Amino acid sequence: MSFETVSVVGLGYIGLPTAAMFASRKKKVIGVDVNQNAIDTINQGKIHIVEPELDMIVHAAVTEGYLKAVKNPEPADAFLIAVPTPFKEDHEPNLDYIEAASKAIAPVLKKGDLVILESTSPVGATEQMSQWLAEARIDLTFPQQVGEQADINVAHCPERVLPGHVVRELVENDRVIGGMTDRCSERAIELYKTFVEGECVTTNARTAEMAKLTENSCRDVQIAFANELSVICDKLDINVWELISLANRHPRINILQPGPGVGGHCIAVDPWFIVSKTPEEARIINMARLVNDQKPDWVINKLKIAIADYLQANSNKTINEVVINCFGLAFKPDIDDLRESPAMGITHELAALYPGQVRIVEPNIVELPEDLQKNAELIKLSEVTYDSVSVLLVDHKEFKAIDCPSNQQFLIDTKGIWLI
Ligand code: SAJ
User: Fold this and answer.
1) How do residues 231-275 score in pLDDT, each as one tens digit?
2) CATH number for the 5-198 domain, one of 3.90.226.10, 3.40.50.720, 3.60.15.10, 3.10.450.50?
3) If you average pLDDT over every residue of the chain, what do you get?
4) How many A from CA of 64 to the centre of ligand 1?
5) Among all residues, which ones are annotated catalytic?
6) Domain ranges (residues) in the chain
7) Residue 210 near residue 184, CB atoms below 8 Å
8) Could you tell me what percent of the chain has a pLDDT over 90?
9) CA 11/CA 43 separation, integer angstroms
């Protein structure tokens, strides 16, 4: 049975592009979301998130009638669940959104349907989702009950696309397909082959869950190594950027770049899903999280020292007169996404410590988030004053294109683009 209608539950950074890709291949796509504003925006052919090229694809899909957004699930042949999986206060994964999505689609499931969990999830979440579905639909059979004979096929196929490159990577990346049975995997491959040009590699659901967590934990550990090196080098008076570029000349070494910390909604979250399941064993993964999470505090301390040095060199000034320039707010270069950004956290704290003295240059936004507006000011790169203390937090292309616009002596360059 082929897939005529595909439903994508959760129309965020992953769900909306995925829905749009199916629609662009002329599948009838029903997008489901709890956010009325997102539904209305999409149904007008517009998008509520920032992702290159996505606006055109969504516009075409909606105007040609292949994509619509609704609040309540409707019958379909395949359901892809792409809802958030945040963690709770104690770093335990929060599966509430998956549970709510499962319970929402259960009433419209029919024999032969495929349900795919795309959300990054702790090991065991797909089995748990299938259990929630089974409890809601005792008239249907599920893989954990009858294996290959199940009425409903269930798989975990984690998303792996890089924000800013989602449209291309959705098509080109290889896909890990973790069916609860072989039949589930076969059906999932059939669905993804609608638009995926990368290879679809099959495994079981638990391994697919762990594969995704492993990828992001690996990156987190590697960034933690770079961040730790930056702190060590600072103490030993060594330029960490030069050091890394030298070490990377070794044919088997590829050290990543230090920064003000690790941001975004994936790398700083997913490793905790491994740590919470196996706290005794996941020692390096746990430590990497702590190293990366501590980096913003280290940056703030460095800045306090720079302010003290500045005041010593400018004895006519008081601490309330020091201007602090913050370059960049986004969680990584050349995007406008401020969520879970270490640069945001650092700037917030500086604005609280030095109210009215913080000037922010962020070329990708037109106004500051509300909570920063009262204590800080958004300025243009051309308006930066030379006589001040500065912290470079994001290596945006606009910053890389110029020489340091501030006084080197009182600059904390967390990305190493202006240091000489
Ligand atoms: N960062 C560094 N140094 C580096 C590289 C990154 O400090 O050398 C920082 C960035 O500035 C940022 C954070 O790490 O704050 C994360 O950025 P990223 O570009 O490494 O990753 P994300 O969060 O945008 O996307 C990641 C990707 N995962 C991997 O590369 C293993 C993407 O493929 C995943 O799909 C995505 O997580 C996700 O949704 O899980």
Assistant:
1) 999 999 999 999 999 999 999 999 999 999 999 989 999 999 999
2) 3.40.50.720
3) 96
4) 34
5) 212, 266
6) 5-198, 237-413
7) no
8) 93
9) 12
Candidates 276, 342, 348, 341; CA nearest to 89 is 276
Cβ pair 268, 87 in contact under 8 A: no
SS3 190: helix
288 CB within 6 A, ligand 1 = no
**Sequence-ordered list of residues with C-beta below 8 angstroms from that of 167, at least 6 positions apart, any chain:** 17, 21, 51, 52, 53, 54, 57
Asked if the model's pLDDT at residue 408 lies above 90, the reply is no
How far is it, in rounded angstroms, from Cα 236 to Cα 203? 47
What atom in ligand 1 is closest to the CA of residue 332? 11
Cross-strand partners of 391? 326, 412
Six-digit token pair at 327? 């370059």
Assigned CATH for 237-413: 3.40.50.720
Taking the C-alpha atoms of residue 292 and residue 200, their distance in angstroms, rounded to an integer, is 33
Least Cα distance to 202 among 169, 170, 172, 180 occurs for: 180
Predicted pLDDT at 1: 66
Task: Supply the residue whose CA is at minimum distance from atom 3 of ligand 1.
Answer: 257
Q: Where are the alpha helices (DSSP H) in 198-324?
A: 205-236, 240-247, 270-277, 283-313
Q: Do domains 5-198 and 237-413 have the same CATH topology?
A: yes
Give the list of residues 6+ apart from residue 153 with CB closer than 8 angstroms, or none. Answer: 113, 114, 115, 143, 179, 180, 181, 183, 184, 187, 188
Return the residue matching tokens 């029919």: 110
Contacts of 77 (CB under 8 A, 6+ apart): 1, 2, 3, 4, 5, 6, 112, 113, 114
Q: Taking Cα atoms as reference points, which of 199, 144, 141, 203 lies closest to residue 177? A: 203
Please give the distance, rounded to the nearest whole angstrom, from the Cα atom of residue 163 to the centre of ligand 1.
Answer: 8
139 exposure class (CB count in 10 Å sphere: 0-12, 13-18, 19+): exposed
pLDDT of residue 185: 98
What is the DSSP secondary structure assignment for residue 77, as one 8-state letter? S
Q: How is 230-256 classified by DSSP, letter by letter?
A: HHHHHHHT--HHHHHHHHTTSTT----
